[in-house]
Amino acid sequence: MLVLSRKAGESILVGGIEIKVTEIGKDKVKLGIEAPKDCRILRKELTEIIAENRQAAQTDLPSEGLRSLLHRLK
After folding, report:
1. Is the CB of residue 18 less than 8 Å from the CB of residue 9?
2. Considering 25, 36, 44, 62, which has the largest number of Cβ atoms within 10 A of its Cβ?
3. How far is CA 56 from CA 15, 50, 51, 53, 59, in A?
4. How far apart are CA 11 and CA 16, in angstroms?
5. Full-model pTM
C-alpha cells in the first residue's frame, strides 16, 4: 500500500483521476474526486454490501429444512 501525506488543497493523481483533500477536521478528512463520468466511484463498504446482495440473489434451491417445511404446508 502506498501511503502519502497531503495538506488541505493538495491533490494526488491516480490514473488520470484527481483526488483532492478539501478539508481536514478533528476526526475526518473530506476528499474531492474529479473523474470521467463513466468512472464508477463507490465507498468501500457499499462494494461489500453489493457483493453480499449478489451472493444472496444467487442462492439456488431452498435449504433442506425449508423444502421440508414447504412440503408440509402443501
Report:
1. no
2. 62
3. 33, 10, 9, 5, 6
4. 12
5. 0.63
Question: What's the distance, CA 69 to chain centroid?
Answer: 37
**The sheet that has 29-34: what strands, in order across it?**
11-14, 17-24, 29-34
What is the distance between the alpha carbons of residues 11 and 66, in angstroms, rounded to a whole number?
54
Give the separation between CA 49 and CA 45, rounded to whole angstroms: 6
Average pLDDT, the chain: 87
Give the H or E element holding residue 13.
strand 11-14
Instruction: Please give the Cα distance from 10 to 66 (Å, whole number).
Output: 56
For strand 17-24 and strand 29-34, is the pairing parallel, antiparallel, or unpaired? antiparallel
Predicted confidence at residue 62, as pLDDT, reads 60
Residue with cell 493538495: 10
Residue pair 73/62 in contact (Cβ under 8 Å)? The answer is no
